[in-house]
Amino acid sequence: MTAHTDEELPRIPGVRHADHVAFTVPDLEQAVRFFVQALGAQELYRSTRGPDAQFMPENFAVPGDARLTLVMLRMPPNLNVELFEWTSSDRRTEHPRHSDAGGHHLCFVVDDVDQAVAVLRTIPGVRVLGDRKEVAGDSPRVAGNRWTYFLTPWGLLMEIVDRSRVADPPPLIGPADWTTPRQVTAATDPAAKTSNEQ
Questions:
Q1: What per-residue confidence (pLDDT) applies to 132?
Q2: For residues 26 and 86, what is the distance between their CA atoms, to the nearest angstrom?
Q3: Which of these, 124, 119, 122, lies nearest to 160 by C-alpha position?
Q4: What does the pLDDT read at residue 196?
Q5: What was the pLDDT predicted at 174?
Q6: What is the CA radius of gyration of the chain?
Q7: pLDDT beneath 70, residues of the chain
Q8: Which has the closest alpha carbon to 151: 11, 20, 14, 31?
Q9: What is the pLDDT of residue 33?
């Protein structure tokens, strides 16, 4: 376990925005089909790499015999998703649970959670986790938020959410930000202060 300190971490200069999220899947074609047909993604390109005894351990922290195939997907208006399928001598196949280290999920905003759940229940292999929930007094800042988790046919945990009923939602990134130029200031990028002082 890494020791914790109160020392402030250095700011990485020049960070602009998130570019993509990535997931390793057991069957690439199955996952691409789900993202394209069920979620409306667009396939952009494919690539392969490995095995390579030097490059793979050094650059991916995997065994030298590991080989990957990837597909990059575009999900308008604000997300790119990279899907990997790997082979290697010691590849683990179990997914982490939500409560495990490395647990994760991908969430999409929908117009109506009930309608989305109804369609999800018709897709073979999808497991919807319970019925639609609505946040109440346990999280008053987002009271009215409707949500449901589900598992894809290969076990990736996803969520659908509708925040339209939240009276005063927190300033999460959303459509209003997509056309707003990013203001680079000393507060958001310490390198800007150095540049302005030169």
A1: 95
A2: 8
A3: 119
A4: 47
A5: 81
A6: 20
A7: 1-3, 180-198
A8: 31
A9: 98
Per-residue pLDDT tens digits for 132-154: 999 998 898 999 999 999 999 99
* Structure tokens that stand for 93 in this block: 């196949």
Are 51 and 60 spatial neighbours (Cβ–Cβ below 8 Å)? no
Contact residues for 165 (Cβ-Cβ < 8 A; gap 6+): 134, 144, 145, 146
Rounded to two decimals, what is the model's pTM? Answer: 0.85
Which domains does the chain possess? 19-88 (3.10.180.10), 95-169 (3.10.180.10)
**CB–CB of 50/63 below 8 Å?**
no
Distance in angstroms (rounded) separating the CA atoms of residues 33 and 106: 17
Tokens of 182: 């990013």
Report yes or no: 51 and 110 within 8 Å, Cβ to Cβ: no
What is the rounded distance in angstroms from the CA atom of residue 153 to the CA atom of residue 156? 8
Q: What pLDDT score was predicted for residue 182?
A: 58
Are 149 and 159 in contact by the 8 Å Cβ rule? The answer is yes
Q: What secondary structure letter does DSSP report for 168? A: S
